[in-house]
Amino acid sequence: MNSTKIRHLYWAAALVAVVLGATVGIRLDSLDVPFWLACLSGCGVANAAVNELDRQIERLGLTTYACRTPGCDFRARLKAPSAADNRRWQEAAAAHPHHALPRT
Ligand SMILES: [Zn+2]
User: Fold this and answer.
1) Closest C-alpha among 21, 79, 26, 92 to residue 50
2) Does residue 104 fall inside a structural domain?
3) CA of 83 to the centre of ligand 1 (A)
4) Are residues 29 and 43 in the same domain?
5) How far is the centre of ligand 1, averaged over its atoms, from the C-alpha of 59 (Å)?
6) Domain that holds residue 26
7) Residue 98 alpha carbon to ligand 1 centre in Å
8) Is residue 101 part of a domain?
9) What is the spatial distance between Cα 78 and Cα 59, in angstroms, rounded to a whole number?
10) What's the pTM value of the predicted model, to 2 decimals?
11) How far is CA 87 from CA 5, 13, 60, 82, 91, in A?
12) Are residues 49 and 90 in the same domain?
């Protein structure tokens, strides 16, 4: 994903977060919640939404390598891996030293 598209996603995420925070603040204000508390709650919701959307956007640029054995939770995520890293982590996911299988 190119940087312009990522920047647009960040701006869209920030806009969604601000709208969500303002909506929560306005709804709380209409319930006779003190204005300062509604503002703080709206800012908290906006901050949480920005963080979550930022995390989701960050995940879009990651490549995940996971063990295919059912029940094994080995997983590695790399940002823009090179061809050598790609091969190394594919091999690691296919044959890593231990499998964390759930006990039966
Ligand atoms: Zn495994």
Assistant:
1) 21
2) no
3) 22
4) yes
5) 22
6) 3-60
7) 6
8) no
9) 10
10) 0.57
11) 28, 34, 20, 9, 6
12) no
Q: What pLDDT score does 54 carry?
A: 84
d(CA 84, ligand 1 centre) in Å: 21
Q: Are residues 56 and 13 in the same domain?
A: yes
Whether 80 and 51 share a structural domain: no
- 91 CA distance to ligand 1 middle (Å): 11
Measure the CA–CA gap between 82 and 65, rounded to whole angstroms.
Answer: 14
What pLDDT is recorded for position 88? Answer: 92
Distance 97 CA to ligand 1 centre (A): 8
In a domain, 45, yes or no: yes
- Ligand 1 centre to CA of 71 (Å) is 8
- Residue 102 pLDDT: 58
Cα 81 to ligand 1 centre (Å): 21
Q: What is the pLDDT along the chain (104 residues), one digit of tens a residue?
A: 677 887 888 888 888 888 988 898 888 888 988 988 888 888 888 888 888 888 888 888 889 999 988 888 889 999 889 999 999 999 989 888 777 665 65
